[in-house]
Amino acid sequence: MNFRQLDLNLLRVLCAIHRTGSVTEAGQQLALSQSATSNALARLRHCFGDALFVRSPSGLHPTRLAQRIAPLVADHLLQLEAALCEGESFEPASGCVHWRLSLSDLGEMMFLPALARELRRSSPGSRLSNEAVDAARVSAALEAREIDLAIGMLQPDHQGVLGELLFREHYVALTARDWQSATPTIGRRLTSAQLSRAALALAAPTASLLNNVQRVLERLDLGGANCVRLRHYGAVPELVRGTDLVAIVPQMFADAVAARHDLRVWQLPDGTSYDVMMVWHQSVNGDPAQRWLREQVRHLFGQGRIAANEPVSEASLG
Q1: Which of 41, 65, 85 finishes a domain?
Q2: What digits encode the pLDDT tens for the residues 231-248?
Q3: Which of 11, 55, 261, 283 fits 237 for a cystine, CB–CB 3.0-4.6 Å?
Q4: Global pTM exceeds 0.85
């Protein structure tokens, strides 16, 4: 091996191809053209005297040498980056950072406005964007540095991906203010019998949210009761306000829209909850700008600081 011809950029290409199994995807992650990435792979092969990656039906497959060295190189690159960032500081007022988040349709509605307001107030020179990343790819996207942070119903499943519980969320029912069962004797909690007679609406932009809501319905013996399924939460308020539908939604969303759209929030007989997590990769754990962003998320949405963590309010119960 000709060690003198190696540089950090070549090693980053090695790790990216090992991670993605594709020259094209590796180049996209590293902001390199396909030809530049191919040239880098050729230089790596020359340095190591090994093919490193060979074509297979599922993409580029690492040779035994690449399988052995790529994980070690990736770990050392992360350690080097952390060491170089140590001792740095971030001044939000003068900072100019582009933070890339991964938020679902619901997460964008619930988290992005408050976070953007805080960003404009504290770090006006910085930028914030919500990237389109499938929930199943969040961990891989964090590892590849396609995104910096994700918030949602997430469970870290990759080594090196860190997670922190923000709060526990509950499901509630959302109806029109004059919904047909809204009599003085009904109280503030719907019974299973009342739900069994209702026409249900489910908003499930992701498979994980759909599965979660379906589990709630199955516990209530309502597995096949839904009659309208939506891809986006934004349509829910108008849908229930103009019909007799009962929407099963997270409490945070219900509390946010109930007063504005003159809707009513009901507790469910089953108190099912789920964890809302903030996740990031260990490679940015010590980065001052990333630490600052995570602290803003904790401050804005951490346990006990948003309506989702409180009991259903008197105002929204009607």
Answers
A1: 85
A2: 889 999 999 998 999 998
A3: 261
A4: no
